Give the backbone structure.
Amino acid sequence: MNTSRGFESTFGAPAEVVGSAPGRVNLLGEHTDYNDGHVLPIAIAQQTRVAIRRSGEREFVLHASMIGQTARFTLDAPPAPHFATYVYGCIAELHARGVEVPPLQIHVESDVPMGVGLSSSAALEVATLRALTGASLDDVQIAQIAQRAEIEHAGVRCGIMDQMASSLADTQRALWLDTMTLERRLVPLPRGSAVLVLDSGIARTLAGSGYNERRAECEEAARLLGVRSLREVDEVAAIEGLPEPLRRRARHVITENARVLQAVQCTDAARFGVLMNASHASLRDDYAVSVPELDRLVAMLQAHPRVYGARLTGAGFGGACVALCAPDALQRVADEVLKAYADAGCQGRQLVPPAG
Ligand code: GLA
């Protein structure tokens, strides 16, 4: 990706500033962040780059080269195209904090896979804020403003995991984050393991509505239990009196938080893998965010002798699976599992590491 060249060929002059940020894959700790819980994402190699230049015009002009779309907007007239609302949201949130952003020409390039649960939207928000603010904000402030942009302007009541991961994680170590206190630590992957991500090929059609519904169920469970968030509950026995499906939703959150805390201590890939497998079962049975194709792909990964563990990753309802594998067998696992998945009539693809 040559962002400067892309900017120049679109706008006819060089960019003044470029900001970049990676996508992420979550290894463990799914649907825990909006319950003030624990998460364990890691950055992926694919990045989004945002190049900007003052335009001297009245409008912002935004071009996204990966989808070949252009949007024009002002602060008072938000853009209609969905991709542009993330950038608009960042500008509007800075404005709300007293940071004036003059009309700009903006060029976006990205190889972060979109719509599969690898946080292409967080990468776009964080890269935009980096370009707009230079070194004046720290990484946590950037993540917090990016999250507000997504909630207020893209309409997803997300937690803070994706933006924190895009802003703070690297590709070699996972980011353990306590989303209540923002205490965090970079933790190495278990010895002798590497990350593989495969796309199930199933579009996440219910992701928006189903996500907000799960969040509302968790809030209702917390209200009935008389706690501020499900993070405050760590004994499964405490939720026995909840009506279904709230009891199962709460059980997922409690057991998933415990799995993240165990995984952070874990240097053994096989034990880490067992936690991933248990996470998938919990997301499927208690949290009900899986679909048959994800279950099938995850089962194929779990059955492979060189895979330690696998689960759906991201919000669910389709999208990607993550697996922890023996590093020397990574490509073999990807090829064999994708072939078996195709033989079963489904079309998947390799996302991480990016296929050569
Ligand atoms: C999406 C949200 C995150 C998180 C995950 C599920 O990626 O943006 O905040 O809730 O789903 O773990």
